[in-house]
């Protein structure tokens, strides 16, 4: 009986250190994928950046360059970039007078 106590402790430690964090990560990814809307700037798990143009069930139409759209699965989205920029509005900030191309700044 006393031989099972270390085994139970090791399993408990593995659950706390490995299984539980992975479950939290999966839930966060599912929440992100469910909240994708047209107009969101996203990155796919393959590293492709783009803007969501249309949503059809589990399929997203992603514009990567002007007039170039990709048809991708909703589950391939790895991250969203437009949440911090939601309060930007018409005012682009003090340094917007530079010779920037006017495109989105990512990174």
**Class from helix and strand fractions:** alpha+beta
Let me know the largest β-sheet. Answer: 5 strands, antiparallel
Number of helices: 1
Principal-axis shape equals rod-shaped
Computed over alpha carbons, the radius of gyration is: 21 Å
CATH fold-level topology of the domain at 37-82:
SH3 type barrels
The CATH architecture assignment of the domain at 37-82 turns out to be: Roll
Distance linking N and C termini = 55 Å
- SSE order, as H and E? HEEEEE
Task: Write structural notes for this entry.
By secondary structure, the protein is α+β, with helices and mostly antiparallel strands. The chain has a domain at 37-82: Roll (SH3 type barrels). It has one helix spanning 4-34, and strands at 41-44, 49-56, 59-65, 68-73, 77-80. The protein has a five-stranded antiparallel sheet with strand order 4-3-2-1-5.
Summarize the structure.
By secondary structure, this protein is α+β, with helices and mostly antiparallel strands.
């Amino acid at each position: 009986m006393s031989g099972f106590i270390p085994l139970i402790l090791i399993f408990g430690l593995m659950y706390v250190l490995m299984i539980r964090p992975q479950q939290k990560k999966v839930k966060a990814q599912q929440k992100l994928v469910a909240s994708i809307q047209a107009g969101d700037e996203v990155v796919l798990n393959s590293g492709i950046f783009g803007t969501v143009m249309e949503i059809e069930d589990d399929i997203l139409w992603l514009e990567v360059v002007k007039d170039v759209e990709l048809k991708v699965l909703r589950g391939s989205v790895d991250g969203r970039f437009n949440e911090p920029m939601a309060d930007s509005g018409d005012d682009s900030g003090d340094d917007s007078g530079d010779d920037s191309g006017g495109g989105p700044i990512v990174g």
